[in-house]
Amino acid sequence: MDDHRRKIIINEIKYWKQNRLLPEHYCDFLLNLYTEGSLEDDSTSRNRSSLTKGILSFILIGMLSLSVFLFYFTELSIFLQTAFIIFFDLSAITAVLYMVKKSFLDLVPLLASVLLLLITSVQAAEIIFPDHPVMIYITVALNCILWITAGTKWKMVSFKLSGIIGLIVLLITIFI
After folding, report:
1. Confidence at residue 47, expressed as pLDDT on a 0 to 100 scale
2. Virtual CA dihedral for 75, 78, 80, 85, nearest 10 degrees?
3. DSSP state of 48
4. Rg (CA), the chain
5. Which pLDDT tens digit goes with each residue over 29-67?
6. Residue 37 in 3-state DSSP?
7. What does DSSP assign to residue 68?
């Protein structure tokens, strides 16, 4: 097989692997077959991917810790809290969209993102509706439904389980 055809096939298999059109072990087998076991740039892309996951995890966990500290241990003005809520939520949503686009769904960044979204949405409900605890219940229920939906879509049992347990705890809290 000539070199040009081999490069086309290798690039196509990499595209399949990146977009999850075939299972990863099939793509690895085909890549090893067509490159005769000498694919160097796959290890650098894995290192880059793991570095990106690590940095993203560190940033989101830092934002999660900062939001807990800012919202529950300091007394900031409503304007400043609202600004932080908007910034943290947009950052978390951007991170999740980036992970979905790059098709690496790692548990730690996703978990940090949904917890950040939960904390900031509950804080927003407390600020906007200070005398209506029903709005906080609705906010928590919507977050749990989002977790169940994300767990179903991405086939993550931990998200489905967290959403179901969260709804059960919320119902127990409301009725007891």
Report:
1. 66
2. 100
3. H
4. 21
5. 888 888 877 665 555 556 667 787 788 888 888 888 888
6. coil
7. H
